[in-house]
Amino acid sequence: MSASAASAWSIALEKDGWTARVETRSHLSAEAEKFVLTNTVTAYARRPDAEEELVATTDWHDVIPRTSA
Q1: For residues 53 and 46, is the Cβ–Cβ distance under 8 A?
Q2: Hey, which residues does 38 pair with through a beta bridge?
Q3: Residue pair 44/11 in contact by the 8 Å Cβ criterion
Q4: Whole-angstrom Cα distance, residue 16 to residue 39?
Q5: 0.85 exceeded by pTM
Q6: Looking at residue 30, what is its pLDDT?
Q7: Which residues is 30 bridged to in the sheet?
Q8: Number of H helices, E strands in the chain
Q9: How far apart are CA 60 and CA 39, in angstroms?
Q10: How big is the chain by its Cα radius of gyration, in Å?
Q11: What is the distance, to the nearest Å, from the Cα of residue 29 to the centroid of all Cα atoms in its chain?
Q12: Which band of pLDDT confidence, cut at 50, 70 and 90, is reported for residue 68?
């Protein structure tokens, strides 16, 4: 089993009935030879008198070599 950490955040802004919301999720794990990092960012928007809609999402997956003991 490796050490790991996870984080999730959400922020919303609103003005004149228009709303924007961004959610982020991150997961970091440490293995003997590498760190593994996964991130997701998702953005939503709602205009006045409309349903909330997904406007963007992106994922990153990085493997970072451990260079010190």
Answers
A1: yes
A2: 27, 61
A3: no
A4: 31
A5: no
A6: 93
A7: 3, 35
A8: 0, 4
A9: 5
A10: 17
A11: 15
A12: confident
